[in-house]
Amino acid sequence: IDVKKDWSDHALWWEKKRTWLLKTHWTLDKYGIQADAKLQFTPQHKLLRLQLPNMKYVKVKVNFSDRVFKAVSDICKTFNIRHPEELSLLKKPRDPTKKKKKKLDDQSEDEALELEGPLITPGSGTDVLYIGPLKGSIYSSPGLYSKTMTPTYDAHDGSPLSPTSAWFGDSALSEGNPGILAVSQPITSPEILAKMFKPQALLDKAKINQGWLDSSRSLMEQDVKENEALLLRFKYYSFFDLNPKYDAIRINQLYEQAKWAILLEEIECTEEEMMMFAALQYHINKLSIMTSENHLNNSDKEVDEVDAALSDLEITLEGGKTSTILGDITSIPELADYIKVFKPKKLTLKGYKQYWCTFKDTSISCYKSKEESSGTPAHQMNLRGCEVTPDVNISGQKFNIKLLIPVAEGMNEIWLRCDNEKQYAHWMAACRLASKGKTMADSSYNLEVQNILSFLKMQHLNPDPQLIPEQITTDINPECLVSPRYLKKYKNKQEKGCKKQMPGYIRDLITARILEAHQNVAQMSLIEAKMRFIQAWQSLPEFGITHFIARFQGGKKEELIGIAYNRLIRMDASTGDAIKTWRFSNMKQWNVNWEIKMVTVEFADEVRLSFICTEVDCKVVHEFIGGYIFLSTRAKDQNESLDEEMFYKLTSGWV
Asked: Where is coiled-coil annotated (predicted)?
């Protein structure tokens, strides 16, 4: 029978050596293959079940012979997500509290979260389906920043500006619901949240990070099977050039990752912050439904390209009004005020002591009074390289700043107490910049102050809340907006207060708190609310730290190594307290001894840090360090493609 088949996607896979034979000009002898070797002739593109940051699953064909970094870039191109270097693939963590289930049970649990469709399915005519934007269009380079890019999304609500066909080309996405990746979908029942794995301790969080795939090896080399479920996540917490006009899907998926991190208690927050996050979620859910309905009626919007370009220029230009830029550029701003200072020591009962404090460059000087500020300070501290942690309670009018200042023998702990929000915002912004080696003359200082003030404002509760119409309280499900820990906390509070509970009383109490907090965000647009949620997530003390269990050279017990975008942190495994911090800006080089699996990092002033990762391949830690160094080299004026080779040089180690 004359049946034609396209074999162009097939290649040879050598199972024993776990390698693809892709160099077709090589002989089998050159590969070292003997007569008894077993080779598999298999398609390179295979189906993968991908869990997106919004916890929904999609089926997509991925090249199993490409390095993971390249495979993720292709996936992001499919979903119109710029800057794919920020994402990677993670193996699903096992919940140690649950007994092993049958595969059918696991699959049925996953299918409950499957996107309608399924969203992406392989084509019937060919082995390889190009799923993604039209080739050659502006959408086919999601990793680039171009000054001439045409806006793709409405910056107000995130809906596509162009017709569906231009947005996703001829892909399967355009046949179904193209907006589904850019639209937040609310959690429908508390049972979904209850089934999710919640890390109970820092060690549990560290174990999740064992699952990151090696970016310099292919999926097949890492024992990933066809139809296996993998997690697509933002791996590096350094989000470059988030622009609502191009990044509606990226912003939404980032918002979803932040939302689930808070609900699953992967990151700590205060009760006031939790209510603010819940209010933002409620607002986003409400606006998402309205936007979807409006988009169905107005799918073909016309865009004036000149107006869009001018508007985009206004948004993206750094700085602000001319008057703020052309100030006195010869002097560095300073802060001077009465601040309460506390230096905790063992067996001490002394509290805060008030000083006249001046903040110059990256140093704080403390004087006993304003009159003595021309003399020698009683205390002086340089904040370069320190850890800055907020300790704020709006209702209790507590505005504290915790500083961990590096010294030769470890970290000195200092607490600053401010009198009000305005004072706190200015001093907190100055401390954050000083920790990075920047002064208040930096252009980001005023923006940082405004971000802190807006973050505090969103946590305010109206002391005399307006009467809320009964009809809008019915669409709030607090069990889906607040983490289980705070639900339990409210329940315990009420049980102590009164023995007999009215039906739904606790639910109504939390709903009222959420609606009070909602009044602070009710005027925000959909995209603004998502951006504020992401910014508030970034403001949390634990944000952006990836933990690994490690044993340090000279140490006797297991500790944690925390990796952030700009520093390494040695941490206590039980409390999470920082023992010592090292900035990447002071790093000279880092090496890995692959035989004993030891990572050694050398810093300025002949400081050396060596540790062995006990429960994860040191390659994962090495890739995180190199990845953050790679991301720090990005600039907005770069208009060329992603430098893959540079990424591999910094992260792969032996390639």
From this structure: none
